[in-house]
Amino acid sequence: MKIKLIYKLLAINAIVLILLVAGISIGFSQYTLQLIEENRLMMYQNFLMFQSATGRYLLYTSLAIIPLSIGINWLFTRSIIRPLSGMRKLTERVASGDYTVRAKIRSNDEIGDLARSFNQMGKELERIEQLRRSLVADVAHELRNPLSTVRGYMEAMKDGVLSAKPETLDKCYHEVERLVCLVEDIHRLAVAESDLKAAIPSNPVDLRSVAQEAASRYMPKWEEKAIVFQEDVPSSPVCVMIDKVLALRVFENLFDNAMRYTPNGHSVHLSMQANAKMLRVEVTNTGAEIAPEHLTLLFERFYRVDPSRSRTYGGAGIGLSIVRDIVERAGGRVWATSGNGSVTIHAELPVDS
């Protein structure tokens, strides 16, 4: 049988109160009797009568004070327990999938802090749920369109309406590539989450060489889109305490994001500036701008400024969130700025001394 917390608290307080009243009563009685006996303030017969009367009065007083104290204690304890009971009901609603519930903040104590933390958790869960639903809808859309296109071409070739010409096969290949990119994005997210949860040791890694290695991998893609890549990096190694695989993933995601949203013929610029304490990395792509209200949300998982553009350029909105998670794990921070026809992703990491 489950015993409610309020009854446990009342039982503890009642026991403490009874012991306190009993101790005070016995101590007062013994002290008074000892004082009378030592100073011979009354006859022995009167002394016995006084002793009996004192005991009765203390007993009656205790019987009156203890229930009254328990009643007052009940009221105060219930005022503390009631918000917790309400929080439990709200938690059950959240567990059932209702992330819109919020707790009322009635005080500025620990209970109020708990309510504020609960509301913050609810807002975050509601935001994540909205992003998840948006992702599911977008993934379903992005899967349905290429599959429908490929199926249409395959049925047409099967029925003899179209022949297997290179142009037809190229269109099918392009749609399959869209599917592959989507699956790779989701796989990257799963791998990144697995790596971040694992206890991967950090070692001094030269981020300059890691950035150049990642840039060399993307050079063919940039040349294909006639994108000019420029770099401004230190001449000497700049070491940061981080796992090399995760560091490489940071630059690959930064370059992949820049490559996706840089129009043909524009440029991508890598800048690295270091001092005795911090290394700042900046990746700037020209040909696009982002409104200020979207900049703080770029690093949220599954967030896309314009979902229709994501269907055109590919991507599930997870690359920059992976960058943020890895950089923050290494003790750094990331943010974005936009203006003058360009977007810049900034990252700061502590330099290994």
Quick one: CATH superfamily of the largest domain?
Histidine kinase-like ATPase, C-terminal domain
CATH-level-2 architecture of the largest domain: 2-Layer Sandwich
Helix content: 55-70%
What is the averaged pLDDT score?
Answer: 78
Number of domains: 3
CATH C-level category of the largest domain: Alpha Beta
Shape: elongated
Tell me the span between the first and last alpha carbons: 60 Å
Q: Specify the structural class.
A: alpha+beta
Could you say what the CATH topology of the largest domain is called? Heat Shock Protein 90
| Number of extended strands | 7
Strand order of the largest sheet: 2-4-5-7-6
**Radius of gyration over C-alpha positions, nearest whole angstrom:** 36 Å
Unreliable spans: 309-313
List the helices and strands and how they pair.
Layout: H1 5-39, H2 44-95, H3 110-158, H4 166-197, E1 203-206, H5 207-224, E2 228-232, E3 239-242, H6 244-260, E4 267-274, E5 278-286, H7 292-295, H8 307-313, H9 319-329, E6 333-339, E7 342-350
Helix pairs in contact: 1-2, 2-3, 3-4, 4-9, 5-6, 6-9
Describe this structure in words.
- The chain is α+β, with helices and mostly antiparallel strands.
- It folds into three domains: 5-98, no CATH class; 134-196, Helix Hairpins (Orthogonal Bundle); 200-350, Heat Shock Protein 90, CATH 3.30.565.10.
- The chain is built from nine helices and seven strands.
- The strands form two sheets. A five-stranded mixed sheet has the order 2-4-5-7-6, with helices on one face. The chain has a two-stranded antiparallel sheet with strand order 1-3.
- Helix 2 (44-95) packs parallel to helix 3, helix 4 (166-197) runs parallel beside helix 9 (319-329) and helix 6 (244-260) packs antiparallel against helix 9 (319-329).
- Mean pLDDT is 78; it is low at 309-313.
